[in-house]
Amino acid sequence: MGLRINDTVPNFTAETDQGTITFHDWIGDSWAILFSHPKDFTPVCTTEFSAVAQLTEEWEKRGTKVIGVSVDGVEDHRKWKGDIEAYGKAPAGFPIIADAGLEVSKAFDMLPAEAYLPDGRTPADSATVRSVFIIGPDKQLKLSMTYPMTVGRNFAEILRALDGLQMSSKGVATPANWVPGDDVIIPPAVSNEAAKEKFGEFETIFPYLRKTKAPE
Predict the structure, then answer these.
(1) Which residue, among 161, 120, 123, has the nearest Cα to 142 in the 3D structure?
(2) CA 167 to the chain's CA centroid
(3) Against a cut of 0.90, is the pTM above it?
(4) CB-neighbour burial class of residue 195 (10 A; exposed 0-12, middle 13-18, buried 19+)
(5) 105-110 contact pairs (CB < 8 A, 24+)
């Protein structure tokens, strides 16, 4: 059974380039983003890690920890960070999990249980380790996205999705293409009377589609 929205994410203990972590303890009371990669020293992944490093202040503003996982060892991670920082011109202060044994990749259902890394392997052997998981402070999966190796992830969209999730945790929903500052949707389960009491003024477009100003 794959990992689904609102499932509690796997807890695990693993080595990173910054030492040993236990995942749920590392998350603590924060939001968290786990982003995965099939191999160190690969071109698309290097640009992605650099993009994450460049957004350090944005993650901090949102009370969100970021952590990478790559199917290589700690020493490779430490060497690779030099390239990541050189390309992005920003320090990569987040940890990278060493998953050469594939335990994390399998726990998050990115690889089947029988998967292994052959001698002389290439990124194609772990190509499906290309997912992003956004996790709430309750340790539940809130959103996941999976990309092929040839398409770089859009971290502006990941940031926007994080904003939408944090907004929706206030009891609202967000419409297509929503960005902070836009109106939000009142869930259909909330009556007009309750909506008036909770949100004040709102616009009724259809009986099931009502919009209001985003709560502070």
Answers:
(1) 161
(2) 16
(3) yes
(4) middle
(5) 105/36, 105/69, 105/71, 105/129, 107/10, 107/12, 108/3, 108/9, 108/10, 108/34, 108/36, 108/133, 109/2, 109/3, 110/36, 110/146
What pLDDT, on a 0 to 100 scale, did the predictor assign at position 121? 85
pLDDT recorded at residue 162:
98
Q: Dihedral (C-alpha) 88, 90, 95, 97: value to the nearest 10 degrees?
A: 10
- Which one of 45, 55, 132, 158 is the catalytic residue? 45
Which residue type does 54 have? Q
Would the pLDDT of 1 be above 80? Answer: no
Examine the pLDDT at 78 and tell me if it is beyond 70. yes
- Is residue 14 annotated as a catalytic residue, yes or no? no
Residue of 146, 141, 151 whose CA lies nearest to 128: 146
User: What is the token pair recorded at 145?
Assistant: 């996205």
Q: Please list, in sequence order, all residues whose beta carbon lies within 8 angstroms of the beta carbon of residue 119, skipping any fewer than 6 positions away.
A: none
Three-class secondary structure assignment of the chain: CCCCCCCECCCCEEEECCEEEEHHHHHCCCEEEEEEECCCCCHHHHHHHHHHHHCHHHHHHCCEEEEEEECCCHHHHHHHHHHHHHHHCCCCCCCEEECCCCHHHHHCCCCCCCCCCCCCCCHHHHCCCCEEEEECCCCEEEEEEECCCCCCCCHHHHHHHHHHHHHHCCCCECCCCCCCCCCEEECCCCCHHHHHHHHCCCEEEECCEEEECCCC
